């Protein structure tokens, strides 16, 4: 059985999808999936299910919901009652969010170790797991807000790492795609230095040294105006290489 939370909640076993009816059942399964393999306390589950105050007997209501969810799952034995709470007894790989995070770590590690092709393969696989907004069924609930923010933050880093991994081997068409993506991301994160650094590096790799220098200058002025600071060490080093006629890429780190 596999559970997807990187988009609308999805449960698949043996190639067949099982619908989870009822908003509270979806909340319960999502909260358990975020802690896959570990025990989630009744208190944490109750707070997820009833953030504004629960029923008179929340543990009884929780037990009833868990029983209903167990009957709905294609592998009922995966939902287990423990003395300390409830546990989704599945390997982390069974939940797409956990698999995504593992691939993100592996991809970044490969990039730092000087294996960009291996890094790109893992990072592309990580991004392919996303089917839409994370925790789409429950993103408005308090328990989901930090999880969504964390997943989105990791995804942004993965997208940056992928551009860095493909920078040395990309052709003109791929660089055009990277530039469009970077410009879109910069519109949402104008002060994020790694995005700006990658933009400068991709422009330089595309033979557009003048535009790369202009992009650096625009960022330098933005930092000075909004934060009263200057670009970081890696960005300054890239700028110096450009001034010297070199356009090799930025460091792979965040």
Automatic annotation (TrEMBL):
Determine if Transcription is one of this entry's keywords: yes
- Per UniProt, residues of the Bacterial transcriptional activator domain are 95-243
Which Gene Ontology molecular-function terms are recorded?
Answer: DNA binding
UniProt keywords, alphabetically: DNA-binding, Transcription, Transcription regulation
Cross-referenced Gene3D superfamilies: Tetratricopeptide repeat domain (1.25.40.10), Winged helix-like DNA-binding domain superfamily/Winged helix DNA-binding domain (1.10.10.10)
Q: Which SMART domains match?
A: BTAD (SM01043)
**Keyword set includes Transport:** no
Q: Which Gene Ontology biological process is one annotated for this entry?
A: regulation of DNA-templated transcription
Name the UniProt record assigns to this protein:
DNA-binding SARP family transcriptional activator
Query: Which source organism?
Result: Nocardiopsis metallicus
Origin organism lineage: Bacteria, Bacillati, Actinomycetota, Actinomycetes, Streptosporangiales
């Amino acid at each position: 059985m596999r559970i997807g939370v990187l988009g609308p909640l999805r449960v698949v076993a043996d190639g067949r999808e099982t619908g989870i009816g009822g908003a509270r059942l979806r909340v319960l399964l999502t909260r358990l999936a975020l802690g896959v393999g570990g025990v989630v306390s009744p208190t944490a589950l109750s707070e997820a299910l009833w953030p504004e105050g629960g029923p008179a007997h929340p543990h009884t209501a929780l037990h009833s919901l868990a029983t209903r969810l167990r009957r709905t799952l294609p592998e009922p034995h995966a939902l287990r009652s423990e003395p300390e709470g409830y546990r989704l007894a599945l390997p982390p790989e069974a939940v797409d969010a956990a698999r995504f995070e593992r691939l993100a770590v592996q991809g970044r590690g490969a990039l730092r170790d000087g294996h960009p092709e291996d890094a790109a393969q893992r990072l592309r696989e990580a991004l392919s797991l996303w089917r839409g907004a994370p925790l789409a069924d429950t993103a408005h609930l308090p328990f989901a807000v930090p999880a969504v923010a964390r997943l989105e933050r990791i995804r942004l880093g993965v997208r940056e790492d992928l551009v860095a991994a493909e920078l040395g081997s990309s052709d003109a068409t791929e660089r055009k795609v990277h530039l469009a993506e970077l410009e879109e991301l910069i519109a949402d994160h104008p002060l994020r230095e790694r995005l700006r650094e990658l933009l400068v590096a991709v422009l330089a790799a595309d033979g557009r040294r003048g535009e790369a220098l202009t992009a650096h200058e625009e960022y330098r002025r933005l930092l000075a105006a909004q934060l009263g600071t200057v670009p970081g060490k890696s960005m300054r080093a890239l700028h110096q290489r450009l001034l010297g006629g070199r356009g090799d890429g930025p460091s792979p780190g965040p």
